[in-house]
Amino acid sequence: MDNTIKKLVVLLVPMIVDCLDNGLARTPPMGWMQWERFRCLTDCEAYPDECISDKLFRTMADYMVSDGYLEAGYEYIMIDDCWTSKERDNNGRLLPDPDRFPYGIKNLSDYIHSKGLKFGIYADYGTETCAGYPGSIDHLKTDADTFAEWEVDYLKFDGCNSDWIFIDKGYIEMGKYLNATNRPIVYSCSWPAYQEPNNMESNYSALAETCNLWRNWDDIDDSWKSVTGILDWFSGNQDRIAPFSGPGHWNDPDMLIIGNYGLSYEQSKAQMAIWCIMAAPLIMSVDLRTIEPKFKNILLNKDAIAINQDPLGIMGRLILKKDKMDIWTKPLKPKEDGRKLFAIAIMSHRVDGYPYRFNFTLGELNITDSNQFHIKNIFESTSSVIVNDKELIFTRIKPTGGALFVVTQQK
Ligand SMILES: *[C@@H]1O[C@H](CO)[C@@H](O)[C@H](O)[C@H]1NC(C)=O
Ligand SMILES: *[C@@H]1O[C@H](CO)[C@@H](O)[C@H](O)[C@H]1NC(C)=O
Ligand SMILES: *[C@@H]1O[C@H](CO)[C@@H](O)[C@H](O)[C@H]1NC(C)=O
Ligand SMILES: *[C@@H]1O[C@H](CO)[C@@H](O)[C@H](O)[C@H]1NC(C)=O
Ligand SMILES: *[C@@H]1O[C@H](CO)[C@@H](O)[C@H](O)[C@H]1NC(C)=O
Fold first, then answer.
1. Fewest CB atoms within 10 Å of the CB: 217, 224, 278, 349?
2. What per-residue confidence (pLDDT) applies to 382?
């Protein structure tokens, strides 16, 4: 093995001793969540097809199956905020809004399971959720038990309206109650998203011991600016957070916004490329009834998903900035015959209005070897090349666009 590659691999081996061991999320979770696209729309009289309701989740579940998302790996369908009544019931239990969820949550959960999907729900550690619905702070055990009874498979546990400095404690406690239910529930935490923006470095050892995934930073909005802002934070903090990514525990830069209003086709490929190379959870938030085929094809791209779901679970890192391009690399599980595999993602910050002819070498990315490498451009499957580590690789990247490559060592 070449020394440089050896060094790279050693550097990237997670250094975690104890991790949450509930057997779940061995690869980054994939699914669909309401929030970025449908927010807290509760007016079902005015917007019957878009409001947060039983009908919305059943419809999306149907599309997840009929349009190939489940088959591609997107298996969780998740309710976000705004599903409950404004008050708990007489026994202190969370109660779905009776008009919007007339059959109750267990009935919806059964429907989603009957389609072969898994079911996720939302709660908040604080006194109220972010949108002002009942919080869980004095009801952790009750809520964990209720979710298990409803056969929930995934909990997004938010952190609005809580004391963010000491918030870890509450998440760890909730994790114990979830474990005690005996139902395997993917546990998505948000505590860094409340600490890091306040200039407090979160305890990632504690996160990996407690949670299957965690939101590190700000919520995503439907814009390129939001995507690049999130990536500035992730790349700027990658050496601190990447070692904690691995099977069962993931950094989460928030939802995919592909197919909505804010990203162009090229920007959508860039988001997919970087989310895949970061081993980020792939959580869509888009109207599956109306998404245009070209965006759908990005979300369903098998090679991109395979990079994201690579069994080693290494979070790729930004390794080179050149010509206003960010280049990220990620070691993938080697081939059975021992040949090395990598992924490369490029994201352009150029706005010059034409496809920029960009060149780089593998050597510049610290991928050096005496063997040649086969390079496949996965969004443009017709172009692939074989190069050594010094030969220039040319690719044309459209303004604020992205590209993703699989690099295979040759014999
Ligand atoms: C869900 O509720 C509907 C309407 O009341 C009912 O027809 C159906 O049998 C229920 N499904 C389950 C799984 O209980
Ligand atoms: C509870 O925690 C134990 C110890 O880490 C683990 O073996 C078990 O799988 C967990 N159970 C559930 C349901 O999460
Ligand atoms: C971080 O969490 C770990 C594991 O729970 C704990 O051992 C350690 O003391 C914590 N570090 C700090 C600085 O609180
Ligand atoms: C690439 O390798 C060189 C030489 O070993 C090293 O100085 C540099 O830090 C490496 N770059 C990255 C981003 O790992
Ligand atoms: C490769 O890109 C550099 C800019 O990074 C440019 O100066 C050089 O001319 C390019 N090489 C070729 C052969 O096009």
1. 349
2. 73
